[in-house]
Amino acid sequence: MECVSDPGPREPSTNRWRLRSVRTRLLAIALLPMGAVLPVVLGFALFWWLGQFDALLVSKAHDDLIIARQYLRRIMERGDEQIAALGQSAAFAEAARADGLDTLLEDRRKALGLDFLYLTAADGTVLAASPAGARPAGSAGWRVVRAAHEGKRETAIDVFDANAMDAVSPGLAARARLDLVPTPAAADTDRAVETRGLVIHSASPAPLPDSRGGARTGALVGGSLLNGNLGFVDTLNDLIYAHADLPGGGQGTATLFLDDVRVATNVRLFGNRRALGTRVSKEVHDAVLGRGRVWLDSAFVVNDRYISAYEPVTDSTGHRVGMLYVGFLEQPFRLARWAMVAAVVAAFALAALVTIPFLLRLARAIFKPLEQMNRTIAAVDAGDLGARIGTVPSGDEIGLVARRFDELLERLQTRDAELRAFARELDARVEERTRQLEETRRQLVMSEKLASIGEITAGVAHEINNPIAVIQGNLEVAREVLGPAGEEVRTEFDLIDQQVHRVNMIVTRLLQFARPDEYAGYVETVVPAEVVTDCLVLVRHLLERADVAIEREDTATRTVEISRTELQQVVINLMVNAIHAMPEGGLLRLKTQDNDYSGREGVAIEVSDTGVGIPADRLRKIFDPFFTTRTHGGTGLGLSISYTLIARYGGTITVHSELERGSIFVIRLPVIRCQY
Predict the structure, then answer these.
(1) Minimal CB count within 10 Å: which of 57, 116, 459, 628?
(2) Region for residue 469 given its phi and psi (left: phi exceeds 0; alpha: psi -120 to 50; beta: otherwise)
């Protein structure tokens, strides 16, 4: 039989991955940690450490900038406090009454280290000034002065031009003047000189006696020029870096900028010459003065790179007029960082140089004996059962395995001899099995007898057909003879017709069952419920004799293509088995329904009984040839033949049984077109 259906799953490919040798894997195990894993781990560790190192340097620069800011603020606060104290002192009041303010201001200016100190009225009139000859003009325009006239003291850093500086202190503009020095990385400029001055500018209200015995308020104004103020940056540098432990050659620096020009610094150009007049790099200028950011990073300073911290300096009006800078040379830290990296790499290389040969020796001590075992296995596989591994120098588990392997080979050789002896014994057992087959042949003879009974049954059926034909013919003659008078017995004639037809159908089904070859040989479209109905006709006498009731349920809407007589043979066999399983009577359930299985549409025919059931140890053997559960009668071929017939059409027979509760046999057939 050839069934047209969907192809089954493809066979798995015969290509298989070949396992790499133990040698390769052991070498990988030995070398990967030192050659790949550890370098990656060290790389990540060094990357993280370098990042933390740079972050620490930037953090230190930030801390240094905080100290510098506080120092500058303290200087401004001290000047503010000193001028305020002078304006409120008794000496100031006494000098004002005695017209000795010029002398007092000169003495206090020198004592306080100020570059100028003067007293101005609210209308801008200068009442007293130091140094001698100073004539401040336009002082009322300064924010700090206006605040003092309003009764508040204030200190700020302001930018004075050359005229303003000479007005408050003759010669001060000359001190502030700086020639600009061309500086690498600085922004382009056409300026060649810086004439402005960066001044700590303080003002405090000061009461003045009135000629009429009243009082009036003036502003006591003082300031210090920061241009060239080396004491300021040196003190700041000592405050931050005097006790700092900077690596070899490292030096800390501090600078005060007017705009982008260094006006006070301890950064050196060469030798002991300070880098006054040099300019800040363009990137720092744009970030700090342009955008008002605090710079915390590496930056180019004059002629080298420094870990730098810059912040903008604002004047009394809030405009950015300069920068405060602290930093330290980057190169020593860069060298220290690369020295650390080199030390780690060198330590790793030394460890690898020492470790890898040792690991290779360990790996070789493992794979050499294994390769020897492999060669021995190949020799044994070729037929040399006397091949042995021999002595392995290793005394560990590998050596133990080698010795055990040789012992197994000894046992294998012994077992081979035993198997040869067993083969001779097997020949003797074959002769015994031959005798058993003879017994099976006798059972087949019994099957032939059953076939003969089938022939006899067919003959009897043919013989019954003759009297049936006579009865049918005479009945027709009687109808013709009686004519209209036959209407009185028409009911009886119809009953005889029905019973004759019933006998004829029984004989036909009996012939189909007894001689299936005459009715088989072709496939037809079969309605499962009709086959079950035909089978009930043939087994009705067994049902009545065994007092078995019938329960049917036909819900199948599909048809199957199968030999009707072969399907009838299978269903009758299951019905007969069910009747025999209920010797005291019971209920025979017959059910047909649509059923899908294995991804195909199909039909199921279920035959169940309420009989004695089948033991579990026998249930898996019931489809074996010559196996029967009956204590007498039966050849054990019915279910085996039925299973074979159904399998020919792509179907299955399954069974479920419980002792004393009955059995359920289910025939499943696919709805497919089969070709023979």
Answers:
(1) 459
(2) alpha
